[in-house]
Amino acid sequence: MNSSTLAFIGGGNMAGALIGGLIQAGSAASSILVIEPQAAQRESLRQRFGVRVYEGAVAELGEAEAVVWAVKPQSFAEAAVACAPHFGAALHISVMAGVRCAAIARRAGARRIVRAMPNTPALIGQGIAGLYASPQATADDRARAERLLNPTGQWLWVEQEAQLDAVTALSGSGPAYVFYLLEAMIDAGTRMGLPAESAKRLALGTFSGAAALAAQSPLSPAQLREQVTSKGGTTAAALDVLAEHGVAQTFGAALQAAANRAAELGEQLN
Ligand SMILES: NC(=O)C1=CN([C@@H]2O[C@H](COP(=O)(O)OP(=O)(O)OC[C@H]3O[C@@H](n4cnc5c(N)ncnc54)[C@H](OP(=O)(O)O)[C@@H]3O)[C@@H](O)[C@H]2O)C=CC1
Ligand SMILES: O=C(O)[C@@H]1CCC=N1
């Protein structure tokens, strides 16, 4: 990463993950500035990474060649009013769920925009993000966004902006579904008599092992599931209960609700 100035608007979880990755990848701390209203967050970012932190919009935003929008969608309008007067001709990269390029262009005066939808495993370099570039973004802009995301894990580009709502529903919110299943499996194991620590280890090992197998195997997830499922055996008994309760359909409905919410957050800002 080169050392031209990068400005983060919002210094919470996602900004912290991205900044941590950039610093580890060799970016100079002095090239990163963060606007963050919470004193505790500012202090944490300053101590962990040595970046420049400010409570509110400052003239230094004009130095930024790239701006990263990492506030909640509901905070974007107010933040844009405060910051927009200071921006130069920067590339704008947004990680905000739902907020459309059109709204970022209109409210922040941005022209070249890349939207990214990362997820929290980015905190340990094992995230996966979807990226979308506005038609005005250049090849250099895309490369810059890739350099921002690289240290946090994997990324892929989508062709249509609306597809980012599906990315948000699947992988942006996705870690929460995995944690939810983990909690349920650990609880069940504990109720069936395992020590809590053992149940946790077994559940975690099962998730990481199954994910690694699915990633490496030429077989589809459905075929891998069939390999586990002996006729008349234990897995079949469990899967019958999941089917009776329509768990696959429920998952479908849950992801659709997340995508709808992303679209709604976007519409509120148009
Ligand atoms: N968490 C996740 O898993 C993911 C989040 N995202 C997106 O990333 C964005 C940030 O999420 P996350 O990091 O979790 O949220 P956080 O709440 O941790 O961070 C946002 C920070 O921005 C601050 N803020 C509020 N208003 C302003 C302002 N006017 N100027 C500057 N900073 C401001 C907030 O302060 P205060 O608390 O006072 O409001 C808060 O500290 C969201 O848009 C979300 O959709 C994307 C992918 C995954
Ligand atoms: O829950 C949210 O709105 C954010 C976006 C994706 C993950 N967290």
From TrEMBL:
Pfam families: F420_oxidored, P5CR_dimer. NADP(+) binds at I9, G10, G11, G12, N13, M14, A70, V71, K72, P73. Its EC number is 1.5.1.2. It catalyses: L-proline + NAD(+) = (S)-1-pyrroline-5-carboxylate + NADH + 2 H(+); L-proline + NADP(+) = (S)-1-pyrroline-5-carboxylate + NADPH + 2 H(+). Pathway: Amino-acid biosynthesis; L-proline biosynthesis; L-proline from L-glutamate 5-semialdehyde: step 1/1. Its main location: cytoplasm. GO terms for cellular component: cytoplasm. One of its GO terms (biological process) is L-proline biosynthetic process. Residues 6-98 form the Pyrroline-5-carboxylate reductase catalytic N-terminal domain. Residues 161-265 form the Pyrroline-5-carboxylate reductase dimerisation domain. GO terms for molecular function: pyrroline-5-carboxylate reductase activity. It is found in: Cytoplasm. Keywords: Amino-acid biosynthesis, Cytoplasm, NADP, Oxidoreductase, Proline biosynthesis. It is an enzyme of class 1 (oxidoreductase). Belongs to the pyrroline-5-carboxylate reductase family. Catalyzes the reduction of 1-pyrroline-5-carboxylate (PCA) to L-proline. PANTHER family: PYRROLINE-5-CARBOXYLATE REDUCTASE (PTHR11645), PYRROLINE-5-CARBOXYLATE REDUCTASE 3 (PTHR11645:SF0). HAMAP family: P5C_reductase. NCBIfam families: proC. This is Pyrroline-5-carboxylate reductase. The gene is proC.
